[in-house]
Amino acid sequence: MDSTDRKLLDQLQRNAKTPVHSLAEATGISTASVQRRMRALRDAGVIQRDVAILDPKQVGLGITAIVSVELERDRLDQIDAFKRKARADPQVTHFYCIAGEADFILIVMAKDIAGYEAFTHRFFLADKNVRKFRTSIVVSTEKATSELPL
């Protein structure tokens, strides 16, 4: 990946619907080169997918929770089961395995506090392998981006 690819990726991650001719102007290459590079970046898995970024409040999701989770046991099958469950749950928007005091960090979205409470009962309290979880409710979002620093 060269500096032109990085410029192209920087433009695309800001707006994936930028017309090819605008990308060509911004990067200083031909439209054919832009298309070729984009195809190569997709084939290599650098560009994983094109998505729409939604406003959570506009779609009825008023609660964002940051949750740290400690599991009871370190058995691989139980860890894998928890990972599968977190990956599959639509309310879990981000899921990280971490080093430190907790085993995992989850970002969870819910309609309201009652919706988040229902999630905790279903997801954590019903799971005998969850030792403890700690929740921080987001009061205001000061920055949220999917853009990588290129």
Q: What's the CATH class label of the largest domain?
A: Alpha Beta
> What's the CATH architecture of the largest domain?
2-Layer Sandwich
The CATH topology of the largest domain is what? Answer: Alpha-Beta Plaits
Task: Order the strands across the largest sheet as they lie in space.
Answer: 2-3-1-4
* Assigned CATH superfamily of the largest domain: Lrp/AsnC effector binding domain/regulation of amino acid metabolism (RAM) domain
Q: Strand-and-helix sequence, N→C?
A: HHHEHEEHE
Helix count from the secondary structure assignment: 5
- What percentage of the residues does DSSP assign to strands (E)? 15-25%
Total beta-strand segments = 4
Mean pLDDT over the full residue set? 96
What proportion of the residues is helical, as a percent range?
Answer: 25-40%
Radius of gyration: 20 Å
Globally, the shape reads elongated
Q: Strand pairing plus helix content: what structural class? A: alpha+beta
Largest sheet: 4 strands, antiparallel
Number of domains: 2
List keywords for this structure.
150 residues; Alpha-Beta Plaits; four-stranded antiparallel beta sheet; Arc Repressor Mutant, subunit A; 5 helices; alpha+beta
